[in-house]
Amino acid sequence: MLLKSSFILTVIAAASYSCQAQSELKSPQIMTADINMNGIVANFMFSPLPNNGGAKVKVEVKSGLTKKFAVSPTGGFEYHIHVKPVGPGNDCMATGGHLDPTNVGAAKCNPAKPEQCQEGDLSGKHGELKATETGVITPFSYNDKYIHFSGEAATIAGRSVVIHNNGTRVACGNINPYGQSSASASSPDGASKTGSNDGDVKTQGSGASGGQLVATMATVVAGTFFGALMAL
Ligand SMILES: *[C@@H]1O[C@H](CO)[C@@H](O)[C@H](O)[C@H]1NC(C)=O
Ligand SMILES: [Cu+2]
């Protein structure tokens, strides 16, 4: 009897977990990338717009993007959504290339035609992060119709945001559901691997989001339990 009731509790737990995972899949949730590397502290928040209308993107730079540091003649820092998460030891090179599910490639993005830009080319579509004396950038936001919260190739879930200094990757952080810790990207060791211009790495969306995988697994597990319950 005891055994049976604890089994039923397990079934209920598995089922409710499954429901939660499924609802996360259906209604997009706010995602954030926290960056804290090489003296650069920044946050990018992606809030879903209604009817799969893209995202409101809020950008906040708390330190590090100084005029003294900026190398590019434009005085700005490029930033993009890259396909893969940050590698161990804050390795920004592990993030691969830009999120580009429509295979636009490295062609220069015309902000007047954002539909023809790479999904992940945020600075191409919306302008670079402009260096300041203090390195702080007043928070600003914009809407981007071409950001996706679902779809294996196009979703921003499980990806990363990378900030560049004249092409060189200087800081990066993972994109996670809001309220979830960003794990790997926040350890403050300055010995991160940077370097290398990524301008033309040809990549596209690949790799399922972890959330989808977990949801699928939870469904399978719950389904098995229900099957077993029916047989009781
Ligand atoms: C900035 O990048 C361009 C293009 O890669 C390069 O030619 C130039 O030397 C770089 N400038 C500095 C100061 O590193
Ligand atoms: Cu980039």
TrEMBL record:
Keyword Signal in annotation: yes
Top-level taxon in the UniProt lineage: Eukaryota
Signal peptide region: 1-21
SUPFAM superfamilies associated with the record: Cu,Zn superoxide dismutase-like
Tagged with keyword Lipoprotein: no
Stretches for region Disordered: 181-209
InterPro entries referenced in this protein's UniProt entry, alphabetically: Cu-only_SOD, SOD-like_Cu/Zn_dom_sf, SOD_Cu_Zn_dom
Keywords from the named record: Signal
Residues annotated as domain Superoxide dismutase copper/zinc binding: 55-170
PANTHER family: AGAP001623-PA, SUPEROXIDE DISMUTASE COPPER_ZINC BINDING DOMAIN-CONTAINING PROTEIN
Protein name from the UniProt record: Superoxide dismutase copper/zinc binding domain-containing protein
